[in-house]
């Protein structure tokens, strides 16, 4: 969430929106911002929870996270001050250039998350998925097993371009429902900018994928039966 709330579209691109049911999402989509009365909200921060489900809890989570980060920085400053005083007392060396966060450096994980899709496909399953992707022409180019593996590892050397956003959503949702990938697959694709949209040369957003998912829940896309056939094989892989 910390990466999202600094952006204007943090609500739509966050996993919070993804966790809402269809009725709750509709309330957020249909809410008229003009009706939001900030003065009344300040007096009662749960005032809008009926029309914006769990809105007050979302704001609380953001505030608590920001305050926790503030406290962390303050603690680091105190630790640095104590270390500088200790060295100045016992040595002629003065450490004037120590900066917060430099003392306890932690390894940086590319993508900020290990295995974002939370997948564990075998080589055989990767081959099945590759055949599925190519059979339904999911992307504008055919993919190899290596590219498929890199896709689910969020380690592509470039980006793939969608041929059909609804088919992409159907495949991913099917994998999720069978327990092969995370419930947060929409956010994972969007945050890692893995796929370009069919009609634009910009990465698919969380909103694009959510819209495509809503559409397939109303009507299955052409080619869904082919994907289902491969998903059944995948379970045996």
Automatic annotation (TrEMBL):
Source domain of life: Bacteria
Name the record gives this protein: Uncharacterized protein
Lineage: Bacteria, Pseudomonadati, Bacteroidota, Bacteroidia, Bacteroidales
């Amino acid at each position: 969430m910390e990466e999202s709330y600094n952006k204007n579209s943090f609500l739509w691109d966050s996993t919070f929106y993804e966790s809402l049911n269809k009725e709750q999402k509709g309330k957020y989509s249909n809410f008229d911002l003009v009706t939001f009365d900030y003065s009344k909200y300040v007096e009662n921060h749960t005032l809008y929870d009926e029309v914006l489900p769990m809105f007050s809890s979302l704001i609380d989570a953001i505030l608590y996270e920001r305050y926790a980060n503030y406290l962390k920085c303050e603690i680091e400053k105190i630790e640095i001050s104590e270390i500088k005083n200790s060295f100045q007392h016992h040595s002629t060396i003065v450490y004037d250039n120590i900066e917060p966060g430099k003392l306890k450096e932690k390894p940086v994980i590319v993508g900020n998350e290990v295995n974002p899709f939370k997948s564990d496909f075998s080589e055989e399953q990767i081959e099945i998925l590759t055949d599925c992707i190519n059979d339904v022409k999911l992307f504008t180019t055919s993919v190899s097993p290596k590219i498929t593996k890199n896709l689910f590892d969020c380690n592509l050397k470039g980006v793939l371009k969608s041929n059909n956003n609804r088919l992409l959503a159907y495949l991913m949702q099917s994998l999720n429902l069978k327990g092969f990938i995370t419930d947060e697959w929409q956010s994972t694709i969007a945050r890692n900018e893995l796929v370009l949209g069919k009609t634009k040369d910009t990465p698919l957003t969380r909103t694009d994928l959510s819209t495509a998912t809503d559409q397939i829940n109303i009507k299955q896309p052409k080619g869904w039966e082919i994907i289902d056939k491969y998903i059944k094989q995948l379970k045996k892989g």
